[in-house]
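User: Show me an example of a complex going from sequences to structure tokens.

Assistant: Sure. Here are the input components:
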Amino acid sequence: MILVAGGLADRVTELVCARLAERNYPYRLLDLGRYPNDHGITCRWRDGGPEGTITGPGWSLDLADITGVYVRFLGAEGRLPLANAAPETAELLRAEADAGLMAIFEDLACPVVNRAAGGMSNNSKPYQALLLRRAGLRVPPTLVTNDPEAAHAFHAAHGEVVYKSLSGIRSIVRRLGPQAISRLKHLRDGPAQFQAYVPGSNVRVHTVGNRIFAVRVRSDAVDYRYAHLDGLAVEMEPTVLPRSVEQACLAVARDLDLLFAGIDLKETPEGDWYCFEVNPCPGFLYYERNSGLPISAALADLLRGAGSTRARRHVMN
Amino acid sequence: MGSPAPASIADCGVGGNVRRGAARSSAVHLVLGRPDDYCCAGVLARFLERGFPARLVTDPLAVPARFIWRLDNAGMETRLALDGTSPTTVSSVLVRDVGWLQTDGWDPSDHAYMQAETRAALLAWLESLPCPVINRTSAAIWYRHRMPLLAWLPLLRGAGLPTPEIVLTNDSADARNFGVQLEGNGAGGALCTPLTTDAAWLVSASDWTGLARLQELVPVCLSEPHGPVQSACIVGDRILWDRDPSSEVAGLAPNLLRFARTAGLTLLEVAVAATRRGPLVAVVEPHVRFDHFRACTRELILDALVDALAGESARVREVEEAST
């Protein structure tokens, strides 16, 4: 039995459930929009991993019977008010309830997409860039600084430069134009991240266990995810990666203990491949719909235990 | 695991073992934290006593500091000029607390954003420094600074360490059954330890109704209560016990060191509790609470920290000099 923990209203979770149903893979939905209301947890750790059950409306699932877990936590906006709790208390209670679920998922022997620890590198893009480079992927020249002079020098050296968040918050890529340059003096309030603009076509890779799905994205937008805001078009098509890039992508996902990852790459006109970041909770629906690649089907197979899996790696160190 | 763990027992008067006055470089040992923190103040004082340049910094990225972290495929460069002009050569870093931006003048959402940005930059900087950093944590630990024992269980088990029985439940009958089981074993109730706060309280016979009301809102985490614990601080490959451990507890030392290595932690506090099932690891805390240790143990921990930072720093410098 597969456990899906997510929101009914979340379109990515909805797609996962639809694919599982289509393939007749039995699953239970732990509706995080309502949880912990309407759900029960009885879990015990003795000398090994967790034992017990998770229950929802009309169902009960023994942890030992779970073949795979797909989890996509929700923000406060996707959750119903908690019964009998003041709003300020509700946030704390939800955090506590989510921490309990994370602890269970972290310690299950079956595939979990994804365990929380593996995704933490996404909160520091430069830290992640170090890991990407160690895995053998080329990363764009990057500067993190609180020094306006250094930012100006980087801009002068590279000509075309983009800037983006260091953390996972407000993560939109923007070109460093005249207006942004005039604001560089504010760097003294806190650091920012700059990267040399890499020309070429974007390629989004999804790793599912040991399988790879690559989509080439054609758009004139600096950040194609927001191309519609500038009235620009986006086109996608399946593509094939060079073997070395493919292996490096799988290595990164493995090193981060991510059974499912979205990896952003770019191929330059010269045929060089650059990697920008790894998303541990990819909203892959956009890419699947536009490319026709069977990402959700592979994910379903992985969760059922039929897909290729690999030995678990702890990512504390 | 290699050779048996070198262990020390707190014995006031036993000092560190690094040569004194060994400083020859103008490079500086950085202590990141607050001046009123016992560990920061103690490590700083020891560095200075031993003749090593050292500096305590609360927020390394705040004005007047100038920070540059550059990465490309040719390599990487980090430069930190704490005074805003001349780059600081960093010999080692003790990370006790990283700068939290003052909230004054910030819109709350902007403040949260800038805080996240600063922490992201610091994590990358610490990861890329060639010198010793204690603790040089992974993102998994950096971003989860309050990790309950439950979160450490897989690694503790992997290191062969015994852990308490733990129940996570929002079923009042399940909780009560656990309590009855514990009472049958002579315990005075169950220990309730929320996963997201440092709180802990004993749930005894008269408290189960109140706990049931809490369980209507959220699953609770319960474990077997234990008596006094034997605290130890791991610093590198040394274990500093606060009191003379029993042979059974001392026998866990190789496993504790294996756990620390697997977790990627050079410095951490552990506490081993005696229970009817034998000694169990009851506490894992990378941010060592010095008030959990006797004064003489604290001194030993500080000595060991400075030994580890200065000693490893000297080794890194020797390797660098040999390679040039």
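The lines above are the inputs; the final block is the predicted structure for all two components together. Chain B is about 35% helix and 25% strand.
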